[in-house]
Design a protein that fits this description.
alpha/beta; 205 residues; 24% strand; Aminopeptidase; homotetramer; 5 helices
Chain lengths: 205, 205, 205, 205
């Protein structure tokens, strides 16, 4: 089983993005799971194109994109992506869409096709807080999740796809308002590995 | 320099207390700081008595008590303890004081005599979120901090004393409401060590 | 212009539901808007059926369902309903669906067809906090919003539809954890009126 | 019975302060309670001097200062003021003290001498969320509460004194981050009246 896992480059004034930092800490092989890691741009539209390049190059069985959700305290496995782009801050190319479709001819929404319940369960069974999330927002995270599921729906039906949101890394919490939740990068990375195990395990059954 | 650092036993239905778990992970020596670790009961009055036993036995230069603050996201170095005990849940001996003084003849409050600003700064300089807190609540945490500072004021004026609140450990977050902040025990323990360094450093200057 | 506005009966152990209480405070006429109010059951499936009964009986130009969102501090105008029913507590008929579709043959999601941006703007312009929400959850609120938009899509294309989430009423905050946000019923009701004005105004343009 | 109640002028970039706005809505007489209202400056030191002027002029039986606590959702009756001034933003005269005593020769802290439990109970009994707070912070609110209790301790022992924190007014919530709790000014004002009733009632018993 081969899984392509992506993480965003930093955005919004942060110097690191815990998503890609945690992805980088993953091993290349975990049991019989081959893990291919890729950094993608925090840019509407571009992110999805880079993901498709990765799909074509690596022919994965599943694709999981990972992004930062600064206001969350746990690992959030996303259930649904919606066909809507709205940005309260510009992306890394200066785009700031408002009330725009991600794909003109796409469905209103797509559900993740990875086993979100099993993923959350496996992460929690290993002692790391996690939950299903029912909104990936309307920024580049939702946009690339939508693009991925749209691509799968139209062109790559044998691939499973989804998205995971992760909290700020511990270091990022310094200087943020008191009360801002954080998680160690090593813990986030372990959680991602448990998520991948669940994807691979489901696939076997 | 010898520092006595204490952590509470579990309470409130939790099976572990991140305070003592993190204390246990500390080394016995850090530079020229000798670290003496002690578990104390989560019981009003008793906690302070056990702390005094530790003072008599170990003759420390400073005493720092550590407790869990489930609703915090960062390391909270407490600035003040107040002469008031109020419990919304019973302590581990079944006591549930309401509107009671910690010490009949004590001051209304005592400020910590450890260098809280330097401690917070050193923790943050090492990439771990921390802040000064101006309330240790009214449960056993505040009570033992008050008892410690009362003892120092009356009987052990050469000792410096204070209290540190720590978040839930990561594992404790599983099963708690989504949004509950946590921190790795190893990170909490590192933060405690940076706090001790600041106490020792201040002492040298 | 005739608008049908519904509020749920109490659920989850609450003795009142601020949604219907606020709906009841609305006038029957506001300018040239005729307001028809209806209480609907907090029951998966049934809620949507009662809404359709209201549509058939009153032939409204728009239908807005209103529900309580206990963890919100402002008026939340929902943007999208998803084809998923998951309940962490039973509804008022004892149903507790998990990972079930709202409508077997429905789309993955429907966007609200009321002018959510104009509604939020008009509420805020009158000094009441409001925002667009991108998840109505997976409980009966999302379910009835989905049912409404499904009905509109399939059978009543000339009707506009959507959903508004409101905070706890002030009285409900007594006894809840410190930090629980609330809003006066009279304020919630005014916000609903400003929302209806925006729906009617958009219709004129 | 005569009660002097004060509210701060706006600060921190806000155009109104819900504290004084709510105070202004109070009647001049409530049963046999004579209510004297006074606006005080949001300035360290000055606030306390103006309060003393009010004491000398009006000879009240009790003094209650009221301030805004932007991050709270309920009415917070303060239990204790500490001898510490630390400001993260300048006050209205540009002062920004850090680690400074409020009164050089004052106690470490003073407890409120108004009946905080009875006040919270009476507010809640009337359907408005309230709780005892154990920290008034370290800004001008804590400072004036400290000054008041210091004055009472040293010079006016027959007067009772304390402090109440109130949330943002509803209008202030517009433009603030989603999730910011607010309360109607009329509700805040009612809560203050119920608090005064409890002060007067306690006095009779």
């Amino acid at each position: 089983m081969k899984i392509l896992i992506t993480g965003f480059e930093p955005f919004g004034g942060e110097s690191v993005n815990p998503a890609y930092e945690a992805v980088k800490l993953l091993p290349d092989m975990a049991g019989d799971i081959q893990i291919v890691k890729m950094e993608i741009p925090t840019v509407f539209g571009e992110a999805g194109k880079v993901v498709e390049t990765g799909i074509l190059q690596h022919q994965p069985d599943a694709v999981i994109c990972v992004g930062q959700a600064g206001r969350r305290a746990d690992i959030g496995v996303e259930r649904v992506a919606i066909n809507l782009a709205e940005a309260s801050i510009p992306d890394n190319a200066g785009n700031q869409p408002m009330d725009v479709k991600v794909q003109e001819d796409g469905d209103t929404a797509y559900f993740a096709t990875i086993p979100v319940k099993a993923m959350v369960k496996n992460i929690k069974d290993h002692g790391i807080p996690a939950s299903i999330s029912y909104t990936a927002g309307t920024y580049v995270c939702n946009s690339v999740m939508y693009d991925l599921l749209y691509l799968i729906d139209r062109k790559y039906p044998s691939i499973r796809g989804g998205f995971i949101h992760v909290p700020y890394a511990t270091e990022q919490g310094v200087g943020k308002p008191v009360g801002t939740a954080t998680m160690e990068l090593s813990t986030i990375s372990k959680a991602l590995l448990y998520a991948l195990e669940a994807v691979a395990g489901e696939d076997k059954n």
